[in-house]
Amino acid sequence: MKKILMTLALVLASQMAFCQTIDEVFEKVKALPNAQYQEISKEMMAFVLAQMNDEKTKKTMQKVESMSFGMISSPTEETRTAFIDIVSSLKNRYNKVAEEQEEGQKMFVFTDSDDAGKPLGLILVVSEGEGCQLIYFKGNVGMEDLEALSNMK
Helix or strand or coil: residue 74? Predict the structure, then answer.
Protein backbone atom coordinates (compact mmCIF):
# COMPACT_ATOMS: atom_id res chain seq x y z
CA MET A 1 0.00 0.00 0.00
CA LYS A 2 2.84 2.40 0.83
CA LYS A 3 4.41 1.63 -2.53
CA ILE A 4 1.19 2.53 -4.37
CA LEU A 5 0.80 5.78 -2.42
CA MET A 6 4.43 6.73 -3.07
CA THR A 7 4.03 6.02 -6.78
CA LEU A 8 0.85 8.09 -6.92
CA ALA A 9 2.58 10.97 -5.12
CA LEU A 10 5.47 10.88 -7.61
CA VAL A 11 3.10 10.87 -10.58
CA LEU A 12 1.17 13.85 -9.19
CA ALA A 13 4.37 15.75 -8.43
CA SER A 14 5.71 15.20 -11.94
CA GLN A 15 2.40 16.32 -13.47
CA MET A 16 2.47 19.52 -11.42
CA ALA A 17 5.98 20.24 -12.71
CA PHE A 18 4.59 20.42 -16.25
CA CYS A 19 1.82 22.87 -15.30
CA GLN A 20 2.87 26.35 -16.29
CA THR A 21 1.01 29.52 -15.56
CA ILE A 22 0.09 31.84 -18.40
CA ASP A 23 2.73 34.30 -17.12
CA GLU A 24 5.44 31.65 -17.41
CA VAL A 25 4.33 30.83 -20.94
CA PHE A 26 4.43 34.53 -21.90
CA GLU A 27 7.98 34.82 -20.50
CA LYS A 28 9.11 31.95 -22.73
CA VAL A 29 7.36 33.40 -25.77
CA LYS A 30 8.98 36.82 -25.12
CA ALA A 31 12.40 35.15 -25.26
CA LEU A 32 11.87 33.90 -28.84
CA PRO A 33 13.43 35.79 -31.79
CA ASN A 34 11.32 38.70 -33.17
CA ALA A 35 8.90 38.43 -30.24
CA GLN A 36 6.88 41.42 -29.09
CA TYR A 37 4.85 41.69 -25.92
CA GLN A 38 2.14 44.13 -24.94
CA GLU A 39 -0.09 44.30 -21.91
CA ILE A 40 -3.22 46.42 -21.85
CA SER A 41 -4.13 47.47 -18.32
CA LYS A 42 -7.58 48.00 -16.84
CA GLU A 43 -7.19 51.76 -17.30
CA MET A 44 -6.28 51.38 -20.96
CA MET A 45 -9.22 48.99 -21.41
CA ALA A 46 -11.54 51.77 -20.16
CA PHE A 47 -10.09 54.10 -22.80
CA VAL A 48 -10.57 51.47 -25.53
CA LEU A 49 -14.17 50.86 -24.44
CA ALA A 50 -14.96 54.57 -24.69
CA GLN A 51 -13.86 54.50 -28.36
CA MET A 52 -15.96 51.47 -29.39
CA ASN A 53 -19.10 51.81 -31.48
CA ASP A 54 -20.19 48.17 -31.80
CA GLU A 55 -22.44 47.53 -28.78
CA LYS A 56 -22.12 43.72 -28.87
CA THR A 57 -18.32 43.88 -28.83
CA LYS A 58 -18.40 46.65 -26.23
CA LYS A 59 -20.61 44.56 -23.92
CA THR A 60 -18.23 41.61 -24.19
CA MET A 61 -15.14 43.80 -23.72
CA GLN A 62 -16.60 45.17 -20.47
CA LYS A 63 -15.99 41.70 -19.03
CA VAL A 64 -12.27 41.90 -19.87
CA GLU A 65 -10.12 43.26 -17.04
CA SER A 66 -6.86 43.30 -18.98
CA MET A 67 -5.25 41.77 -22.05
CA SER A 68 -1.81 40.39 -22.79
CA PHE A 69 -0.40 39.85 -26.28
CA GLY A 70 2.65 37.91 -27.33
CA MET A 71 3.40 38.15 -31.04
CA ILE A 72 6.13 36.87 -33.30
CA SER A 73 6.40 38.48 -36.72
CA SER A 74 7.78 36.49 -39.65
CA PRO A 75 8.94 33.51 -37.58
CA THR A 76 11.36 30.97 -39.00
CA GLU A 77 10.15 27.39 -39.02
CA GLU A 78 12.39 26.75 -35.99
CA THR A 79 10.84 29.67 -34.07
CA ARG A 80 7.32 28.60 -35.04
CA THR A 81 8.01 25.07 -33.79
CA ALA A 82 9.43 26.47 -30.53
CA PHE A 83 6.32 28.67 -30.14
CA ILE A 84 3.97 25.69 -30.64
CA ASP A 85 6.01 23.62 -28.16
CA ILE A 86 5.83 26.39 -25.55
CA VAL A 87 2.10 27.00 -25.86
CA SER A 88 1.40 23.25 -25.96
CA SER A 89 2.22 23.23 -22.24
CA LEU A 90 -1.00 25.21 -21.68
CA LYS A 91 -2.99 21.98 -22.06
CA ASN A 92 -1.49 20.71 -18.79
CA ARG A 93 -3.08 23.51 -16.76
CA TYR A 94 -5.94 25.04 -18.74
CA ASN A 95 -9.02 23.56 -20.43
CA LYS A 96 -8.70 23.30 -24.19
CA VAL A 97 -12.15 24.13 -25.56
CA ALA A 98 -11.39 24.46 -29.27
CA GLU A 99 -8.78 23.52 -31.81
CA GLU A 100 -8.76 24.28 -35.49
CA GLN A 101 -6.09 23.32 -37.97
CA GLU A 102 -6.15 24.30 -41.59
CA GLU A 103 -3.37 24.43 -44.12
CA GLY A 104 -0.76 26.81 -42.75
CA GLN A 105 -2.75 27.77 -39.66
CA LYS A 106 -3.30 26.34 -36.19
CA MET A 107 -5.61 27.84 -33.58
CA PHE A 108 -6.19 26.72 -30.01
CA VAL A 109 -8.53 28.18 -27.40
CA PHE A 110 -8.14 27.52 -23.69
CA THR A 111 -10.20 28.70 -20.75
CA ASP A 112 -8.90 29.64 -17.33
CA SER A 113 -11.20 29.18 -14.34
CA ASP A 114 -11.06 28.92 -10.59
CA ASP A 115 -11.78 25.75 -8.61
CA ALA A 116 -15.50 26.54 -8.57
CA GLY A 117 -15.57 26.84 -12.37
CA LYS A 118 -15.90 30.64 -12.50
CA PRO A 119 -14.23 31.96 -15.69
CA LEU A 120 -11.00 33.87 -15.08
CA GLY A 121 -9.92 34.31 -18.67
CA LEU A 122 -9.70 33.10 -22.23
CA ILE A 123 -6.46 32.16 -23.98
CA LEU A 124 -6.21 32.27 -27.76
CA VAL A 125 -3.22 30.81 -29.61
CA VAL A 126 -2.80 31.31 -33.36
CA SER A 127 0.03 30.20 -35.59
CA GLU A 128 -0.31 31.20 -39.21
CA GLY A 129 1.80 32.01 -42.23
CA GLU A 130 2.90 35.49 -41.22
CA GLY A 131 3.16 35.13 -37.49
CA CYS A 132 2.28 33.58 -34.17
CA GLN A 133 0.08 35.13 -31.50
CA LEU A 134 -0.70 34.32 -27.90
CA ILE A 135 -3.52 36.41 -26.45
CA TYR A 136 -4.88 36.28 -22.90
CA PHE A 137 -8.18 37.99 -22.12
CA LYS A 138 -8.27 38.21 -18.32
CA GLY A 139 -11.71 38.52 -16.80
CA ASN A 140 -15.11 36.88 -16.74
CA VAL A 141 -14.91 35.80 -20.39
CA GLY A 142 -15.58 32.40 -21.85
CA MET A 143 -15.90 30.57 -25.12
CA GLU A 144 -19.26 32.22 -25.86
CA ASP A 145 -17.47 35.59 -25.97
CA LEU A 146 -14.85 34.54 -28.53
CA GLU A 147 -16.80 35.68 -31.61
CA ALA A 148 -17.25 39.20 -30.28
CA LEU A 149 -13.61 39.38 -29.18
CA SER A 150 -12.34 38.19 -32.57
CA ASN A 151 -14.47 40.84 -34.35
CA MET A 152 -12.89 43.62 -32.31
CA LYS A 153 -11.76 46.53 -34.48
Answer: coil
